[in-house]
Amino acid sequence: MPDDTTRIQKNRRAQILEAGLDVFSAEGFNGATLDGIARAAGLSKPNLLYYFPSKEAVYVALLNGLLDTWLDPLRALDPAGDPVEEVLGYVRRKLHLARDYPRESRLFAGEILRGAPQLQPELSGTLRRLVDTHARQIGDWMAAGRLATSDPHHLIFSIWALTQHYADFEVQVRAVLGAERDPWAEAEREVQAHFARVLTPTG
Amino acid sequence: MPDDTTRIQKNRRAQILEAGLDVFSAEGFNGATLDGIARAAGLSKPNLLYYFPSKEAVYVALLNGLLDTWLDPLRALDPAGDPVEEVLGYVRRKLHLARDYPRESRLFAGEILRGAPQLQPELSGTLRRLVDTHARQIGDWMAAGRLATSDPHHLIFSIWALTQHYADFEVQVRAVLGAERDPWAEAEREVQAHFARVLTPTG
DNA sequence: TGAGATTTTGACCATCCGGTAAAGCGACGT
DNA sequence: ACGTCGCTTTACCGGATGGTCAAAATCTCA
Question: Domain HTH tetR-type spans what residues (chains A, B) (predicted)?
Fold first, then answer.
């Protein structure tokens, strides 16, 4: 009783999702067209619709598949580790995620920016619970004097905001820095230093 | 020789821009429809097109009108003031701008997210020059030991990222914090404290 | 090889959308 | 009273787009 999806089905679905990620992240849900996605996937439009029932289905499949990956770095926080190191590690992983998967980051950003029509349940469900859990962890570290004190939720927001900024607003960052500079290399240094300052408790 | 635009033209154009801001910021350029904008403005679609030649014209009119307002807080940096106070003041003004004009913030974010098809010249022109100027000012303050040292450009990015996050990703912020909490009130406190920590030079 | 299931295609459809054309309407000056 | 000018509306068009369908091509496996 192994799954009844053939090898070719797996491949085609993967192709379509890859193409959908490309197109949706660049044009947004409304800007993307089935023809465009199909072309990017090397298929005809009806062929694409043989594997997914609708444009929206491709979109939500992408979003759902994304959320877990996106939240993994947060889950990796180790209560037994050194607090500053742990949170800085989270910052680093999140920044690398934005650097290595900018299309995913932009897809996400577009969905949230439009009011999260598809993702809202996940936001106030899975996401909220996960954040609450780790915010509590961070709060404990602060209470123990092992992290500079602030509101843990807003600290997490600041990490999201800063790391994703480099992916979501990449054109702006590049325009402002100029073509000679390397945004991601600098971001690595600067973001790390920024949060080292924010997190390290004052003697 | 006074301008030949009548009073009613001024009013209608303003109505249309207001409606366009509403619709474009909520649905994005592709998601927005002329009918939708016209309805929001209390006009018929052909009537709207009597005042603007195309959908894109409404959109770019909005963007152009916006950029100046958006950059005003940066221009207000006073070289003669106290560095920490000045930059914290910039943070506060930028946060208030995001709080009071979330539609503008989201319109902007959407444009950048899609690669700034309309705004790119402004980004590498006006914006870059303005940022360079003030980055140099901030750099001087740092060199004088009156601000904690970092890369001024990335410091500015971090201010943009953090303040706009509360407007652009408002649904996510609200979902994570829960309905009882007041994101903007907390943001005011937390963002201020965050940057106080980042900016204040160590003894 | 051949039957049956799976995959692919081309032709087609209904709807929506940006934009146009032309006629109607109201105020105002002569 | 009438013509003109500025504003508004009704009717319409062409193209794009999401999606359907039935037939054709291809693959699988006995």
Answer: 10-70
Q: Is residue A58 part of a domain?
A: no
Tell me the nt nearest to A48, Cα to C1'. C8
Task: For chain A, list residues with pLDDT below 70.
Answer: 1-6, 203
Say if CB A45 and CB A38 are below 8 A apart. Answer: yes
Q: Is the CB of A38 under 7 A from strand C?
A: no
- Per-residue b or e along B103-133, where b marks 16 or more CB atoms closer than 10 Å to that residue's CB: bbbbbbbbbbbbebebbbebbbeebbeebee
ipTM of this model?
0.94
Q: What is the mean pLDDT of chain B?
A: 95
Give rounded-to-5 percent helix, strand, coil for chain B: 75, 0, 25
User: Cβ contact (<8 Å) for A160 and B165?
Assistant: yes
Overall average pLDDT of the B138-160 stretch = 98
pLDDT attached to residue B3: 52
Q: Is B133 on the interface with A (CB under 8 A)?
A: no
**Structural domain boundaries enclosing A17:** 1-53
pLDDT tens digits for range A111-131: 999 999 999 999 999 999 999
The nucleotide lying nearest A5 (C-alpha to C1') is C6
For the domain that residue A23 is a member of, what is the CATH number?
A: 1.10.10.60
What Cα–Cα distance (Å) separates residue A136 from each residue in A77, A156, A162, B178? 12, 11, 21, 15
Contact B169, B106 (CB under 8 A): no
Report pTM.
0.95
In the listed set B53, B77, B92, which residue is the last one of a domain according to the structure? B53
Q: Is A126 exposed, middle or buried (0-12, 13-18, 19+ CB in 10 A)?
A: middle
Closest CA relative to residue A58, chosen from A76, A94, A32, A83: A32
Is residue B177 within 8 A of residue A153, CB to CB? The reply is yes
